Structure formats: C-alpha cells, structure tokens
Amino acid sequence: MRPFDGRTVLLGVTGGIASYKSAWLARLLTKAGASVDTVLTRSATEFVSTITFEALTGRTAHTGLFDSGRALDHIKLARAADAIVVAPTTADFLARAATGQADDLLTAVLLATKAPVLLVPAMNDHMWAHPQTRNNVTHLREIGYRVLSPEEGALAAGEGEGPGRMPEPETIFAHVARVLESRGSSTLAGRRVVVTAGPTREAIDPVRFISNHSSGQMGVALASSAWRRGADVSLIAGPLSVAAPTGPDLRHVDTTEQMARAVGELAPAADVLIMAAAPADFRPHAVATSKIKKGKEAPVLAMQHTTDILRATLEQRKKNSIVVGFALETDDAIANGRKKLQDKSLDLIVVNDATEPGAGFGVDTNRVTLIDRAGAEEVLPLLSKSDVADAILDRVERIANGR
C-alpha cells in the first residue's frame, strides 16, 4: 500500500496507558507493507511487552541502549528509518526530546536520525495544558518535529474528559502516510485542492428525498490521496456512506444547491478542483410541507433541473487551475465522457461504465478510463478505489509539472 511498501518505520513506545493502542498501530503499518522496528522505553515495558510487537511485526523489538549484543543500535535504527513515530509520547518524553537528551535508546535514535519524526502526545489534560509542556511542543515544532495535538475524550483513572487522549491508531496511520509521502517531491505539496464527494438529496416532503447510490468512497479516496501528498485539502461532501477521511477539511452539504454554493466559495482559490460527487440532476418543483399520504393514485411530481455545478465553475476557476471531472455512464461511456470533457473545459475526465461489474457505486473497486485535454486515453485495470485515486492524482501531478 502506498506509501508504505518497502519503507521502514520506527515506532517508539513510551510509558503511558495509551501504549496499548500502539500494538494496533504496529499491525496497521505492517499490514500496509512497512517494515516496523519497535523501540520501547523502560517505562513502556511496564504497560506492554516486546513479545507483542515482535509477534505483530515479525521483527525484533528493542529496549535498552546498552543491551548485550546491541552496540550502536541507535545508529543502525536511526539510519534505517524512513520515518519515526512515537506513540504515545508522554509529557516526560516530550521534555527529554525538547532538551536533546540521549539517556535511553529512543532519545538517542532521535538525535542520530535524519528521518522525519512524528510525535503523538498522550497525557492528563492538566499536564498537556501546563506551560512547560506547551513550550516543549512549540520548541519541538520549531526544530522540525511534527507534533499532533491530542484529542478530547475520556482520560485514564476516572479523570473525566479533556484534551490529552491519544488519537486512534487509524488517525496516526494516516499522518505517518503523509510524513512518508512528504519525503518525495509531490507537486501538490502546499497546493490548494478542492474535492467533491458523495450524493446530494432533494426533498420531496419532510420524510422523503430523491438521491442516488453514490457512497462517496471515490471522492474520499481522492481527498485522502491529495492530503497525503501534502496538499491543503477541502472536501465538500454530501451524505457519505463511508468514514470521513483523516486530514482534509470537511464541509458537509445535503442538497445540490448547497454543494454548488460551497464549490463557488472555494473554487476561486483552488489550484486543483476534483469534481467526484454525484449531485442530483433534478429536484421536485415544489416540496410538500407535510408527509404525502398514500392514496389510491400515486402522486405525480413536477421536476426541474438543479444547478450544473461543474459548468458553473467555468466562471469561478482560478487561472491555470487543474479541473478533473467524472462521467459515470450507462451507454457510450467514452463518447459521452469526451463530450463532457470539451463542454466543461476540463483538463482530465474520469470515465466509467455503471453497468460493468466491480465498477461504479457501492463497491470498493473501479475500472476507469482517463482522458486528458489533448484527447489521449489511459485505460486502467480493475483497481481498488484507493489505487484509482492515486492514479488520478499521479496524472494531475504530471499535468501540473507540464505547466
């Protein structure tokens, strides 16, 4: 799985109650294809064991700086790592890292490495709020470490809720992916990317609506891929049937008009606009103010067109922005896709046939054809939607590099 395959991630675990979550993070990283070296501090071993991490990663877990037969482990581990993540990072470890100490294996590795470092604090909310902790975090960020802010939630020992909870392993996993991708030379790093996803709903009455089968999975995958590459991503999403992604700024909408307004607000500043949503093309001419009762005769709905969001962007787009459209068709997919490419003045269109097994709505895979402004076609095989998203963003980067 991109960008983990063939990479080495060093996972540091310090002595906090949240260290039990670190085992699942090790599993996620390993399953994604990374080689995971684990370093546990002495206090971490009071909460979790080295055997757990060795079983999950298939690699030796490291502890002491002076363990027998482990001379210069801190240098070897530091050089082998493509990225280092310390989760959880206790207040004590933050202080020692901020002052450049090297009194155990993990702090020594941090001083010896040139790899990017991601620290994931977890502690009592009062400890997190303490001025000394805040100063340590500020200093660590100033010298180039990435420090996630803890989440709000239930704390240990019946301390109630507050900021200090370690983010879930899946969230940390996404941030590690962004750290690894940032080691490359992505053209999207620092660029403004706007993605639309999911269906919209058009009310018939207070309890019914018109919509479609879009889950939003393709748009979510695109937003995730762009964010992982270092872009500043806004995701405008109708009702999603999949989890919202980690990282992108999420703006929920319900109707096509709401989505059109959100796109209109963000498009003028977007370097890349990816219109992956499936907004409703029609809406009832009038919405009933109360539930339509079932009678002898079925009601007849007068319909009207909704806003063509993609066409509306013709007047909103930033100069030299890259615009990607989608064409989900049931007949003459390529011909209809080419027409849409020209009519909407797109740089790239993603065409797929809704009748093809394994493609379209409600599945984890897709088979698409990419057509660029010059008319060149690239037919992709059946891939996961995450892989399709990466292929699309690779093409976007090539377009950007050619300008």
Describe the protein in words.
The protein folds into 2 domains: 174 residues, 3-Layer(aba) Sandwich (Rossmann fold); 210 residues, 3-Layer(aba) Sandwich (Rossmann fold). Helices cover 32% and strands 24% of the residues. The protein has 13 helices and 22 strands. It has an 8-stranded mixed β-sheet, with helices on both faces. Strands 3-2-1-4-5-6 form a 6-stranded parallel β-sheet, with helices on both faces. The protein is elongated and about 80 Å long. It starts with 7 loop residues before the first strand and ends with a helix.
Structural class designation: alpha/beta
Which sheet architecture does the biggest sheet show? 8 strands, mixed
Strand fraction equals 15-25%
Kindly report how far apart the N and C termini lie: 29 Å
- Give the name of the CATH architecture of the largest domain: 3-Layer(aba) Sandwich
CATH top level label of the largest domain = Alpha Beta
> In terms of quaternary structure, what is this?
single chain
Compute the average pLDDT: 94
Corresponding CATH superfamily of the largest domain: CoaB-like
The percentage helix is: 25-40%
Placed side by side, the strands forming the largest sheet appear as: 13-12-9-14-17-18-20-21
Q: Helical element count?
A: 13
The whole-angstrom Rg is 25 Å
Number of strands: 22
How would you sum up the global shape? elongated
Into how many domains do the coordinates divide?
2
Low-confidence stretches: none
CATH topology of the largest domain: Rossmann fold
